[in-house]
Every structure is written in C-alpha cells, then in structure tokens.
Specification:
- Two copies of one chain form a homodimer.
- By secondary structure, chain A is of the alpha/beta class.
- The first copy, chain A, has four domains: 183 residues, 3-Layer(bba) Sandwich (FAD/NAD(P)-binding domain), CATH 3.50.50; 116 residues, FAD/NAD(P)-binding domain; 120 residues, FAD/NAD(P)-binding domain; 86 residues, Oxidized Rhodanese, domain 1, CATH 3.40.250.10.
- Chain A has 15 helices and 29 strands.
- In chain A, strands 3-2-1-7-18 form a five-stranded parallel β-sheet.
- The longest helix of chain A is centred in the middle third of the chain and has 15 residues.
- At the A-B interface, helix 1, helix 3, helix 8, strand 21 and strand 22 of A face helix 1, helix 3, helix 8, strand 21 and strand 22 of B.
Chain lengths: 551, 551
Amino acid sequence: MKKKRVLIVGGVAGGATCATRLRRLDEDAEIVVFDRGPYVSFANCGLPYYVGNIIKQEEKLLLATPPWFQDRFHIEVRTRAEVTAIDRQGCAIAVRDLETGCEYHEPYDALVLSPGAAPVCPPWPGIDLPGIFTLRTIPDSRQIRNWIESKKPRQAVIVGGGFIGLEMAENLVHRGLAVTIVEMANQLLPPLDPEMAEYAGERLIASKVHLRLGDAVAGFEPSAEGGLLVRTQAGASLPADLVVLAIGVRPEIKLARDAGLETGARGGIRVDDQMRTADPRIWAIGDAVEVKNLITGQWELVPLAGLANRQGRVTADVICGRDTRFDGVLATAVCGFFGFTAALTGATEKSLRAAGANGFQSVYLHPRDHAGYYPGGHPIHLKLLFRTSDGLVLGAQALGESGVARRIDVLAAAIQMHSTVFDLEKSELCYAPQYGAAKDPVNLAGMLAANVLRGDMALAPWRELEASDAFLLDVREPWEYNRDTVEGAANVPLGQLRSRLSELPRDREIWITCEIGERAYYACRILAQHGFRVRHLSGGYETYWVMYPMG
Amino acid sequence: MKKKRVLIVGGVAGGATCATRLRRLDEDAEIVVFDRGPYVSFANCGLPYYVGNIIKQEEKLLLATPPWFQDRFHIEVRTRAEVTAIDRQGCAIAVRDLETGCEYHEPYDALVLSPGAAPVCPPWPGIDLPGIFTLRTIPDSRQIRNWIESKKPRQAVIVGGGFIGLEMAENLVHRGLAVTIVEMANQLLPPLDPEMAEYAGERLIASKVHLRLGDAVAGFEPSAEGGLLVRTQAGASLPADLVVLAIGVRPEIKLARDAGLETGARGGIRVDDQMRTADPRIWAIGDAVEVKNLITGQWELVPLAGLANRQGRVTADVICGRDTRFDGVLATAVCGFFGFTAALTGATEKSLRAAGANGFQSVYLHPRDHAGYYPGGHPIHLKLLFRTSDGLVLGAQALGESGVARRIDVLAAAIQMHSTVFDLEKSELCYAPQYGAAKDPVNLAGMLAANVLRGDMALAPWRELEASDAFLLDVREPWEYNRDTVEGAANVPLGQLRSRLSELPRDREIWITCEIGERAYYACRILAQHGFRVRHLSGGYETYWVMYPMG
C-alpha cells in the first residue's frame, strides 16, 4: 500500500500539533511541514514576556526544532520555505526556498493549511518609520528587545487595547518605559462588555499607564528630539520612542483564496466541522479559519493557540480516517496585566446583541476569591449571562487579582456541558479558607441568577437607570451612602427597613442598591413580601460605577 | 393565618444558612436558633489558622452575631442553650439554659437539627492530661493559642494525618514548633488513594515534619521534663509539649437517636433527598447526617461547610413549600499545607473498590500548572478515574504547588454534568503563559483517558508490576535512566527506538515507562504500529516512585 503523503503549511501551534498527531496515528505516512519563517513550533503567546524580559532566553520560546521533529517523529520540517501556490487539480503545492530562491513542487495526498494570521498594520502615514513594531514572530520580539536595549526608549505608545496591547503595556512598564495606550473603541479589551472592561482600565490607570480611549491613530512622524510623534484623529500628538501596533490580526488567506477555496465574511477560511475546506483533500486550521461560536451560532475569528491545537488534532484524526469533529468554540480567553486577570468564556451581552439574541439576562457580583476571614482576599468582578427561559448559562466575564481563571474555567466547563444556573447553585467546588468560600463565587452567581428565574428577585435594567422614574433606594449604612451612591437614591439602612416601610412608595417601582448587591437582595425579599414592587440593581455600587463611569 | 414556628438546633454553617434563607422566603415565620456554645455562625474551617496566628483576631472568625441575626433577619438566636430532648408527639423541644440551669420547652411547626460533629477522642490512658487538645470551637482554639503563648511548647504531636492534621502541622510549624504526625493508616490524607498521598508525605518531610504512619497512639503520660510522652502501639515514646487530636469527627446524634430518628451504619442521621428525617416535621443537616455519594451510591459522612450550607438552603426551601432536592455529594475537598495543595472530587480508586465497583481505569499525569516556557511553573500530580464502558469521569485527585484547586474545580463541574473523558479533551480553558497551557492539564487528562478507550494506548496495571513477566522498557535518555528507573527496565531512548526494534521481544508484552508518561505514549504508538504488544505505565517514573515508595 502506498504511503500517504501529508503536507502541512505552517509549523506553529496548529500545524505542529497536526503533524505529531498524524505520526502517532500513522507510523508510515510521509509528513512534511513547510514554514516561511526561520522557526516552527514556537511559543507565540510568550512573545510579550520575552520583550519584557520575564522570559530571558530566546531558546525557551522554541517548543520544538526541526531535528527534534525528525528524531522523535520522523517528520520533515522545512523552514524558510514559502508555499506560493496550490495546484488543486494536480494535488501539488509550489514552494519557494527563501534561502536559495529556488522554486519546486511537492505532491500531496492531503494538504493542511495552518498559515496563521498577520498583525493588522494600516497604511498610516509614517507607518514605516524606525521604532514602530508589530509582534508576531521571534524575530519581531528580538527587534523590539534590541531597540529597547540599544535606544533606551523612555516613552512607548501601544496602539490597541486588546489582550496583546495590555500584555505589552505590562511588559514595557516592567522594562521601565512610560506607556500610553491608544484604543479606537470606547473601551479596553473589546471582547468584554464595556462595563466589565472598566475594571481593567482602573487597574491600568493605577499602574500609571495613560489611556486614550475612543481615539485612533492618524499617523506617525519623526519628532524634533529624534523620536516619534503619534498623531491621533482627535488631534493629540503623543511623543514616543517606541510604538507597538497591537490592533489585532488578520487571517493569512492569500494562498487559500488564490486556490479558489471559500472564505467567510470575517475574512477567514471556511471549513466544515472536520476542518475540511470545500476541497476534500485540503484542510485548514488555526488563526486563518473562521469558527462557529457555540452560543451565538455566529462565525468568528478566534486566534487562540488552544483552538489551533485542537483543530490540528481533529484534522490528523480525519486524515487518518477517524470520525472526529470540531463543533465550535466558546472562545474562553484570559489576559494578565499588572497583577490583574481578565477572562471570559461563552457569549457576552455584546455578542448576544450582535447576534440578534434576546431572552437573556445577566447578574453582576463581586465576591472575594476566598473566605473573607482569611487574610489576603481580593474581589472578583463577575458577570454571568443566562437564558431567561430555562437558565442555560450563556457566558461569563470576570476580572480581579486572584482566582479569576479558576472561576472562568469552571464556568467554561459548565457551559460546555449545557449547565443551567440551577446546576451552578449546587456545584461542589474546593473550599478551604485560603482557596475559596463555602459558597464559591460560581455558586453565588448561580444562586443570584436562580433567584431571578424563580421570581424571588427581579432585576432592574441598569441601562435604563437614568431614564427610569423608579424610586431608588440605597440600603447601606449612612457612612457608606454619604461617601457615594447611585445618583438620586434615598437611604434606608437594611437594619431599619422593616421599621421604616411607611417612608417607601407603593405607587412606584423601587430599585434597590447597596455596595455589592447582597444587602439589596435581602431588602428586595423584605419589601416584596410587604407588597412593594421591587427590583434589584445587580452588583450594587460596585457595578454602578463601571456602568456610569463618569457618574 | 398562624405564623409558622421553626426551631433550629445548632447555629453554625448549616443552621445559620437555613435560618437566613428561611427568613428570605418567609418574612412572617418565627425562627429561633439554639446553640449550646457561646457563638453561632463562626468560621470552623479557619480555626487552624487562628491557632497558627495567620488569622490574628478572634473576631474575624465570627461571621455573624446574635444581634446581627436579630437586626438583619429578625431571627432570635439563643446561645448557651442546649436542646436536651425532642417531644415528637407534642412537637416541642426541651431546652436547658446553660447559664441559669433552667429548663423550658418550646413548641415547633418545623424542627431543623444541625448539631454538627464532635472530634473523636478515644479513651486512651492519659487522654485528660493537660496539653492534649481537640479543635472544634473558638474556645478550643483559644485554649491552644493560650497554651502556646504561656507554655512555649517546642515539640508537638498531632494525632491524625487527615486534612485538619496537616493544616495543624503547617500552623504549628509556623508557630515555631517541631511537629510529629502519628497516623494509624499507612498513608496520610485517608480520602486520597495511597500513592497520591505520597506526594503529600514528601512535602511534609521536606518541611521537617516527622511522620509516623501505620502506628497508633497507645496512651499519654507525663514526662520527667514536665511535658508529655505519647506512647504508640509500635512501642515508640514521643516527647510532646502539646498534643492535638485530629482523628476525625463523629456526628452528634444523641438528640436524634433519643427521639427515635433513624441513623445509618456510618453513624449519621438518615434523611431523604429533602433532608427530612422519618418524622415529617423534623429535618437534619450538616456534619451530623449521612449523605449519598453521587458516584458510588454509598452513604458517607462528609463534614464539609459547603454541603452544610447547601443542605440548610434546601431545608429552608422545603419548609417553605418548595420542591428543592439535595441529590448527593461529590465530596470535593481541598487542603493546603506548606505551600502545597491536595484536592479531590468524586470517587477514588479506594472508594470505588470499597463500593464493589469495577469496570473503571485511571490515568496519571504530571503536567505543569502553566506553560513550561514561562518561569515559575510547578508540576500538578493528577489522577483521573473513568468508566471503561463509556468514558464517564468518576473522580480526580491532584496535588501540587499551584493550580490544583482550579483543575479539581473544573473536574468537579465536569463530573456534576456527567462529562466523559471525550468532553474533557475538548474543554476550552483559560490559556495565557502564566495561567495554563494550550493543552490544559484537564485536556491532557481527557486525552490520555480517551487514548486508552479508543485503543490507542493500553494501560499497564501498576499494581501488577512486580508480579508481571512483561518486558520493561524505559525510553528516556541514558542520563535519566542511569539516575533511577523502574526496577528491571531496559533502556532504549525514544529517538533511537525505530532503529532498534530488533532488540525488543515480540513474544512478551512490553510495558513502557519514561519520566512522566509522554515519551512512553509516543513509544507505545510506534511499537504498536510495528506489531509489538505494548502497554503504558501511566505517569512514568513520577508515578512509579509513589506507587513503590520503598522501591
């Protein structure tokens, strides 16, 4: 029987995983990996930390080398080998050796495209000036390191306030630079709902990072001092000795599109649930493909290493005749910056609305990552989205200093398994004083949402607060109320509520707030049972200030 | 309509939760909580840390006080009030005021028993000598603190190597004492499988704690130096200035048993899935009741605060006419000691065998808590149990310095939702270099188990290693092999395997090992495809040394 010949274009996360999985399943297949760059299987996600010198040695970023692939897996890896065309009829690819300039052809039985995505780099005036960088490869990060070490820059502008932008901010501050982030959107971390992203902004400002949200770059020019000036559309002129563009990535689809393979509206290659393109001999995986969101059903670009790896595995299985599927994504993601963690899984309010969904609600809570009586706890700001009809968990976002990834991981596993908020109520999670609470934040989120669905606590719509004619009631203590409160709220402390019912209106809804929502919930229960029409301002003042950050 | 009168016996985790939930559901009910002790709603789980002075102020341990219950919830709390009898016919309890000695009766519509459990305290000779303590209440921990501060003890013996014993060991070492743990079983942390508990033992020994496993206390006597001598059954005589008994707790069931309520073989009160005893007006919750294990179906005693709280909630719901259920427990638990975490959820091999189960397998793995290329990672020692017929996840145990509770929490959520190992393979979990890996430990556990179930990798039975006539093969590099290996193993490094096939036997099974199991898996795939009969020694040398700790 003829040996199967599998060619893989791109040898980073998806391609490398696919190659080694193929070998494990088929000892006889001929497997060749082509990569345009000098390295394969490198730790893309580690590059900001190499720039920041948290990862000190470049070798650490190399997860595997061509000789390693050869020795361990009998996989041939050709670096500096650019695949320039696909001859679908002839089942062959054209390859250019970037060292010699020679072109040659290679036939395939199966072809896997794992070309990745390239940093977006708009044609702004001055974009080619020295000192302006993107970050995708080891050579990219080496260049930034060299620039830092040789030019001793003092001020940096990072264009883009997404995950990479915030990681770069942390690493450049670690390197001693003053950092400004310019972000076109009105929020940081665009995958998050805007009010949740406010917590990230607060942390960045506390870490002395300057933020320019809702402003975009207009161009770059040399400054009189020998550095750069970043001009913004709002008219600002920001001095910078170093600029990093971190405004997202765009799938590398030229090869696929030139070969007539279908691409989607989001600009990625379209594949079926076995990662196969319209051509039954060609698969595509990784950052270059569109994936279906499991919650919203929308096609998305989700450039994450974990997904690329899983897709590589699925593809290897399918090429070897196994019936493995890639169903879609929750797009679980995490980002760390300045001792803070932001993470999310599943849908956001934003993504649900964009998909035209309704019939969902959300609760906010701010529990500590571990028992309050044990020292060193930190609040976790958590938003949970759930379907009103049955309590199905749709998504979650969390930010805080500690325990954030853990709770989002639990919720990701819960969403994967179609958990409802009633399941979350009774999840049995680790509790000892330094690790959690007898009611874990995940339990609390489930309980709050279940309270809503059981009719024990109606939610007030935060976004309608300003237009509402509801009676606003703050049930905290006077010293808390006098410090700050929801604008227009009256104050009756929870402990006095039963004796001061006569002060409350029976002809209007009462929307109740406190510090984090707990006392307001108790107040809701008391007043509802006394016949008042009440709603709960979920998350209390800790949600109010991010919902109305100028308030 | 007459107000409902609910009496609650015991005001710590379960009782306090039940009381406040009742009030939220029924503003009119009359709710009275009785507690024998001077405090209610205190942080039981924090007591070892109060002894260790990690928690410095006793007030921190008081989660709520009687006036707080009154002000916020209109709940009457009577402390130092011992409930001495239940008159089921008359629907009343007898109460003794421990301050005045007066006895009185209180009628109830519903009665909730939340009496907790008492430390086991065998009638050993000398058990009443000064310096011997148990730890259940705030006064208990205050006594130990006072003893430490006034007597300046230098040596402590902790009897019992379970969760509380290890927490006490950490805290007493933190207080400057030399600590010996005497544990009757041949392992620490009895809920864990013995080989997994070895990692805990290693950490304790490295932290200068002396271990005496498989030995039991015979009695105590005063020492010539004014301290104590702990005599063991093996004949040892251990000097101690302080002894803490931490050999478990026993449900407080006298009240229930005297009232003729059913108790189970494990010594706890029997209740249905609404926490109701055989008497329809009496409920029982918390450490005093037996609960059904969701995996093994066995009745168990699981004295954990989170369960007590949940049972309190269920009971309040049921008393208020809601159809809420308590289905059973996974018994998820966590324990921290000396920078190490041990956690488990669901069944263990031990508990499955005790329940007569078979048809399950387990995989061992030792992944890092975060990407290897990012500094500061630590291994997580993980054991996953799954059902052979369909891959249902049955249980997991993990130990390590970091990321342990997170993975056990994810697995607890997965088990709750009846996940299979095939679901774990594709769970989408948080990955950034400092938080995890593109293939998270949970994914890896799923992949290994799925490899077994798909027939890609047969497991060698570790326990049969010594009796087996299999050919043992270590595929690590010679420098690793020469350092230590599975006894009797031959060495062929993975990279040379394909060229040295002729050295391997075709007439015997080959059991393959390496450092942590990864290379052995690759070797299995290579050899299986070349027609050899191979099995995988799951977890490699890192499992071998705990499986055969004397080896």
